[in-house]
Amino acid sequence: MDSPGSTQKLENLLLVAVPRDLMDDEVIELRREILQAIRRHGSQVVLLDFSRVDICDSFFGRFIYTTSKMVELMGAKVIISGLQDVVIETMVELGMTLPGVDAVLDLDDALALSRSLSRQYNHLNETAPTGGDIADEE
Amino acid sequence: MLKQWLENRREELLAISLAFEHDQSEPLDDSVLYPLLETTLTAAGQTLDGKVNPTRAAVKIAQHAQDARLPLPGFIHSLDVLRRAAQYLLGQDVHAAADQLAWMGALNDLLFLTAQVAATMLGSGTEAELAEERHRLRALVDALPDFVFMKDRDSRFLLLNRAMAQFMGAETPQEIIGKDDFDLFPEVLAVQYRADEMEIMQSGRVKTGYEEQTVTREGEIRWMQSTKAPLRDSSGNVIGVVGMVRDITQIKQAHERERQQRQIIEAQQQAISELSTPIIPIMDRIIVMPLVGGIDTARARDIMRSLLAGIGQYRARIAILDITGVPVVDSGVAQHLDRTIQAARLKGAQTIVTGVSDAVAEIIINLGIDWSGVETERDLQTGLVTALERLGVQLTRRGKRM
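Predict the joint structure of the above. Result:
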């Protein structure tokens, strides 16, 4: 209730539903919460879902940018999903195109992408703890 | 604007009014007439400005006439002189043509009201003066192009001006007096007029500037703007209703034409923008957007919006932008396309640009445009094969080669 967004662990994925109205100080709090959760759960993929966000200012754009950079520094991968058209228009206008970050249409696509990323990861780290076998989606 | 006109032409109006007056057999004294006209013009200006309501302005002018001990016929005559002077001056003034009707209407209203107020304030004179006064009031009412009328409690005409009588197809106002709207108009209109007038008489409130329809003798529908007020006797009881009605059909028609034209233009713009940014879902999760014609900033925005919407609608993971039909690619167009591609990526779709002709390739390199991040293919077919590969779909011929 108190936290600005809801972060949820799902297998080796950290699911973050970014709330609609983020105040400036809540932005920083949410980012801290995400980073702590990555450390706690050892998440390999962080999924930022923006489907509830329908406004975007430069501060908010910076939140997406800095969060993705910090998550990458911690060795995890960022996927963003559900960006709305108006938000995208503003981001492109502001030049915040987030190079290197994977963007997908919605949660379905995000989960599919996250699974294929995990598969690659598990190939490299046979011993890595996962939530069990991941079904082949194709 | 009217106020401005009045300010600018003030001296001329006064001069012309005085000149008109001097043509009369018994002209009024300048020392009486000049201040009166000046007061009237100032009051008219304030009324047009909306600062003072017309009734108060009329009372103010009439008071001035009373202070100057002006006889009523002389006063009403001077109002008429001012009206004629204004009409004359407006006729000369080409620039005022557009506002002319509205202005004259406002001035007419005010002068008419003033005459009525003055009639009660200045009181009755001798029999001859009274007759003269009645004559002049009549002349004033009949000179107005707007409709002016007075009805009793049962909405029967007690008085009406010539313009209104002619509208109803009568030779003189006398033919109409004593009749009611049910004798003169179709029942549906008469019922409505009667209801309005009942409401005004019961509430005792003035109903200003409302629009209503009426129909001519020939069956033509006209739009009217009406102001109706309760008519009271000396002890304040409502004994009927007075009204002023202006034909605004032409203004209405002009507005309507304008509205229709705007609608057509909007519909066409909509059609053009839809035509210019088509989205074709071609296979599962692949859409194609063929672009034809020049791309400016406004169209670039439409293209981006349409592409984003298309990606969402068809759940596209690959968008193929075919620019075969784009005649010129300059740095502006290249930048617009680049932004569109970035936006599509944030929405979750990769973009492949196809149809880059030799000429376009030459321009892009010569202008030093950086398109290194843009994936391009020669033509739509090649682009489609690449897109399918990207999605893990392979195209093979069935059986042996023919």
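Residues 127-138 of chain A have pLDDT under 50 and may be disordered.
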